[in-house]
Specification:
This protein is mainly α. Helices cover about 70% and strands about 5% of the residues. It contains 7 helices and 3 strands, in the order αβααββαααα. It has a 3-stranded antiparallel beta sheet. Strand 2 and strand 3 (about 70) form a beta hairpin. The longest helix has 21 residues, at about 85-105. The radius of gyration is 22 Å and the shape is elongated. The model has no long low-confidence stretch (mean pLDDT about 95).
């Protein structure tokens, strides 16, 4: 979904708003996409460490049990230099949020469930002929085209 440089820009973006712990940053990204994308700690913490080494961010209190980070001047410069990329990243994640909202409409959920059920019932039958498989594939492709063009 996002590469490491995208993640770093998002981290800088959120830290430009206020200091935060790694967990809070994970939750901020997750919230932006309405839960559709949640970066793992294995993605977030190494990038926080790299940003710290690059002097883009700094630990707020080195004695604290959990590290909170704040944006530094180099980080603000990175944000400024890559503002267009950041807008694109935020738009991608926001699009996922729209997807979540629309996919959760009751009629859409029902239709998706009906399609899955019909496929599972039919594909679980033993000895489906090649002709039947082609008919199922054609029906799915046709439905996809109709949805794309709607």
């Amino acid at each position: 979904m996002l590469d490491a440089s995208d993640i770093r820009l998002l981290l800088l973006h959120f830290l430009s708003q206020n200091a935060a712990h790694g967990y809070e940053l994970i939750k901020a990204v997750e919230e932006l996409s309405k839960g559709e994308y949640s970066p793992s700690p294995g993605i977030i913490y190494p990038n926080l460490q790299l940003l710290e080494e690059m002097e883009c961010i700094a630990v707020v209190d080195g004695q604290a049990t959990r590290k909170a980070y704040r944006l530094e001047e180099k980080g603000a410069e990175q944000l400024q230099q890559h503002a267009a990329a950041l807008v694109s990243i935020i738009q991608r994640l926001s699009t996922l949020a729209v997807l979540v909202n629309n996919r959760s409409l009751p009629d859409v959920e029902r239709a998706i469930h009906n399609m899955k059920t019909a496929l599972n019932v039919r594909l679980s039958q033993d000895g489906i002929s090649q002709q039947s498989l082609f008919a199922i594939i054609d029906a799915l492709d046709d439905a996809a085209k109709r949805i794309e063009r709607s």
